[in-house]
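Lab meeting, item 3. Inverse folding demo.
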């Protein structure tokens, strides 16, 4: 009869299986483990095959949660880096746009100032020409006035003094009227010229203003186009990164029936991360 311990159990104990240390294979995927096993078999290293079999056995335990956690950590870092590059690119675009706009405004203001000064000079030159024409019109002889003065002289020679005086005064009045008409005619002509000049100047300023607005709008459109390209590039990058992460994660799963679950978890993780990071709006409106 075999001896018993104080707990009533047999002193004869079962043989304890030694613990096989498989830690050196922890970093390998299932595919890599199987490839390594085949190599050891070919090398007749069956003791190591036993160790690899134990590693495969441990690997075959459902590792979905572990794989998901690993993939999510790596993917989160990848996404954060992508957004950092996106933010930097957008800031550079914004800075370039602001610099272009400032340059447009500076050049336009300078051109406006030059044109306005030219317009003022044009109006001043026009007024000078008008005044010179008025002066020349007053200096130009009057045939009618000369004729009336000759008549007055002849009347005086004939002794008709009263008639000579009357004719002389009428000649003065006639000359004043003629000079006034000349000035009126000059002013009327220059009013038309002035009207055309002001209209032309206004049209020139309006054209410059329209060109300025177009330059500003084109600059803004270029910015929006560049940012849209950055958004599309970012979306494509994150989509591809997520697909790669899912593929890599599925390859590391010990249970292949867990692939749909992993795929959904990774997809949900990315969507929730975008919400948590307040980045959903970046992708709104993109196809």
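The presenter then showed the designed sequence:
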């Amino acid at each position: 009869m075999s001896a018993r311990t104080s707990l009533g159990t047999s002193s004869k104990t079962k043989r304890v299986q030694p613990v096989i240390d498989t830690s050196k294979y922890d970093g390998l995927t299932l595919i890599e483990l199987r490839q390594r096993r085949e190599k050891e078999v070919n090398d007749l290293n069956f003791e190591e095959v036993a160790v690899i079999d134990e590693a495969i056995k441990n690997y075959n335990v459902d590792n979905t949660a572990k794989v998901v956690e690993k993939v999510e950590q790596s993917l989160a870092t990848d996404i954060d880096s992508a957004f950092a590059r996106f933010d930097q690119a957008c800031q550079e675009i914004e800075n370039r746009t602001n610099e272009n706009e400032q340059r447009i405004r500076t050049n336009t203001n300078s051109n406006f100032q030059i044109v306005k000064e030219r317009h003022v000079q044009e109006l001043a030159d026009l007024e000078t020409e008008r005044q010179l024409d008025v002066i020349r019109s007053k200096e130009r002889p009057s045939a009618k006035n000369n004729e009336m003065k000759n008549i007055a002289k002849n009347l005086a020679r004939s002794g008709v003094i009263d008639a000579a005086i009357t004719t002389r005064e009428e000649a003065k009045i006639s000359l004043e009227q003629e000079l006034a008409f000349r000035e009126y005619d000059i002013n009327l002509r220059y009013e038309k010229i002035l009207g055309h000049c002001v209209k032309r100047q206004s049209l020139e300023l309006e054209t410059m203003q329209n060109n300025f607005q177009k330059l500003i709008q084109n600059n803004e459109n270029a910015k929006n186009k560049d940012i849209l390209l950055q958004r599309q590039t970012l979306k494509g990058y994150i989509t591809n990164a997520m697909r790669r992460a899912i593929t890599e994660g599925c390859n590391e799963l010990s249970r292949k029936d867990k692939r749909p679950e992993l795929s959904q978890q990774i997809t949900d993780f990315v969507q929730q991360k975008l919400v948590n990071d307040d980045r959903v709006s970046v992708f709104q409106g993109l196809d």
